[in-house]
Amino acid sequence: MKEMNGNMKEMNGNIDEVTLIDNWQQVSKQMKQACDHADRQADNVMLLAVSKTKPAI
């Protein structure tokens, strides 16, 4: 593994499982904080993943 932009990645460019889980937890926390700030229910907000480098399936 090597470090790229502060994240541990496998040499083939895939994010390892621990980094993926950590990133998901951080994003979830930020989404909840944003919902609290906007007085919205977090259950009514959906995260949509988008990639510029991968084609749609």
Summary, kept brief:
The longest helix has 21 residues, at 17-37. This protein has one helix and two strands; from the N terminus they run ββα.
Question: Would you give an account of this structure?
Answer:
This protein is an alpha+beta fold and 57 residues long. It has one domain. The longest helix is centred in the middle third of the chain and has 21 residues, at 17-37. The protein has one helix and two strands; from the N terminus they run E-E-H. It has a two-stranded antiparallel sheet.
What distance separates the N and C termini?
Answer: 28 Å
List SSEs in N-to-C order: EEH
In spatial order, strands of the major sheet run: 1-2
How many β-strand stretches?
Answer: 2
What percent of the residues sit in helical stretches (DSSP H or I)? 25-40%
- Structural class, from secondary structure content? alpha+beta
Mean pLDDT: 79
Rg over CA atoms: 15 Å
Low-confidence stretches: 1-5, 7-11
Coarse shape: flat
Query: What percent of residues are in strands?
Result: 5-15%
Q: Biggest sheet: strands, sense, closure?
A: 2 strands, antiparallel
Q: What is the count of DSSP helices, taking H or I runs of 4+ residues?
A: 1
Number of domains: 1
What are the salient characteristics of this protein?
two-stranded antiparallel ribbon, 57 residues, alpha+beta, disordered N terminus, single chain
Task: Describe the secondary structure blueprint for this structure.
Elements: E1 2-4, E2 7-9, H1 17-37
Antiparallel strand pairs: 1-2
